[in-house]
């Protein structure tokens, strides 16, 4: 029994050190050297204070800020510990009511805006953590932002254009705007 137990225990300890200590530290170290910004969570800061991550959406409800995609996470929106969609289908009455409520909120915040409401402003994503919105969703909010901030619509559109991110590698995803980065740039204007 001792002849079997000793090599098994030695192998267990060796593999635990390799797989549980050496490998994770090596991968983290390489990641920190090769991609320091991403390894630290892609944090965005303003005046030396960290305000959030470029990778996780944040809730903005003030009419003077751009609003991101709604989040289905609980107990609070954009809760990274509870990432996941609502799993409600398009014909589910709860989903229909939620979308109607979001449409009403957008219309109440900007009653003069008669443009079509982009779908990403009224539906949640699969993760519930989307930090980006489409260009259509950003441009839809221009009249409200310009009115609330006392800026010209062209100033707000120029800010959107300056913070626009193109498709990844030229073909993955769609052209988008990071809401937190856009709102920080908006604050810097003033």
Explain the overall architecture.
- The chain is mainly α and 190 residues long.
- The chain has two domains: 1-40; 43-189, no CATH class.
- The chain contains seven helices and five strands.
- It has helices spanning 2-34, 36-39, 93-109, 135-140, 142-149, 153-163, 179-189; strands at 43-46, 49-53, 132-134, 164-165, 176-178.
- The strands form two sheets. Strands 3-5-4 form a three-stranded antiparallel beta sheet.
- Strand 1 (43-46) and strand 2 (49-53) form a beta hairpin.
- The longest helix has 33 residues, at 2-34.
- The radius of gyration is 23 Å and the shape is elongated.
- The model has no long low-confidence stretch (mean pLDDT 90).
> Can you count the helices?
7
**Average pLDDT for all residues:** 90
Record the strand order, biggest sheet: 3-5-4
Total separate domains: 2
Proportion of helical residues: 40-55%
User: Kindly, what is the distance between the CA atoms of the first and last residues, rounded to a whole number of angstroms?
Assistant: 76 Å
Q: Radius of gyration over alpha carbons?
A: 23 Å
Give the oligomer, counting copies of the same chain as homo and different chains as hetero: single chain
**What amount of the residues lies in strands?**
5-15%
Largest sheet: 3 strands, antiparallel
Order of helices and strands: HHEEHEHHHEEH
Number of strands: 5
- The secondary-structure class comes to mainly alpha
3D shape: elongated
Low-confidence stretches: none
